[in-house]
Amino acid sequence: MATQKALNSAAAPGSSRQGLLVIGVVAVAAIVLAIVVIALAGTGSVSGAINYTELPQSRGDDGAFVLGNPDAPITIIEFADYGCPHCLTYHGTMQEFIQKYVVTGKAKFEYRNFPTAGGDLTRFAAQLQECAEEQRPGAFWEAYGLLYGYSEGGRYNRDVGRTLATDLNMNYSDLLTCSSDASQVTTDINFGRTSQITGTPAVMVRYNDGPAQFINYNGQVYNRGSVTIDVLGAVVEQAQ
């Protein structure tokens, strides 16, 4: 019995040191993870892999913001809201679409701000986007990436205007003054309603300079909700 007690006593210090080592490793890993999360949230990580400045940018006949090769035979149109959880989830698919088909010149991407879950906050964010573009061409797409990053990082809130101005290195007062006359979001909303869009995310397609229409693939009409990358890719390839 005495021998067993001695063995237990001798083993205790080593066990304690091992336990402390495990705790230390876990703590360090947690700190590193927290730093990475904070850093990504502050830089718009969702869209961070795409350099929008390297892609052609244009405006549609009604002012819609368009990304990609002007001569591409097909345009995918997304109606979305930065404050919509489903839009945030679907954003990864749209980023994959841009990488595979817009960067390569096969398709264009048209983004329509369509406030749903985000309500007035999203309308305001869209107005600031438009005003940022007026101050610096290309800033709309910079803001697009940042706003999804804020949403992912839990920073899409009433301070979004000041946060966006800071990250774009713009004067918030100037953006705020401009926002009262920024009307593209109203145009996008009206266009969506006319096109029978009832929620976000929603996707439509335009062939060449034709009218926007819902995607019809293999006998299925995609007139509600998101569309998978496989279907988007198939539709693009058919248009080439």
Q: Strand order, biggest sheet? A: 1-2-4-3-5
- SSE series: HEEEHEHHHHHEEEH
Number of helical regions: 8
**Annotation, overall tally of beta strands:** 7
The proportion of strand residues reads: 5-15%
Low-confidence stretches: 1-47
Largest sheet descriptor: 5 strands, mixed
State the shape.
Answer: globular
Cα Rg:
24 Å
Give the averaged pLDDT, no decimals: 85
Give the helix/strand class: alpha+beta
> How far apart, in Å, are the first and last alpha carbons?
84 Å
* Portion of residues within helices: 40-55%
Description of the structure:
- The structure is a single chain.
- Helix content is 54%, strand content 13%.
- The protein starts with a helix and ends with a helix.
- The strands form two sheets. It has a five-stranded mixed sheet with strand order 1-2-4-3-5, with helices on both faces. A two-stranded antiparallel ribbon has the order 6-7.
- It contains eight helices and seven strands; from the N terminus they run H-E-E-E-H-E-H-H-H-H-H-E-E-E-H.
- It has helices at 2-42, 85-102, 119-135, 139-152, 160-168, 172-179, 184-194, 229-239; strands at residues 57-59, 65-67, 74-80, 108-113, 202-207, 215-217, 220-222.
- It is α+β, with helices and mostly antiparallel strands.
- 36% of the residues are buried.
In short:
The protein has 240 residues and is α+β, with helices and mostly antiparallel strands. It contains 8 helices and 7 strands, in the order αβββαβαααααβββα.
Structure characteristics:
240 residues; two-stranded antiparallel sheet; 5-stranded mixed β-sheet; disordered N terminus
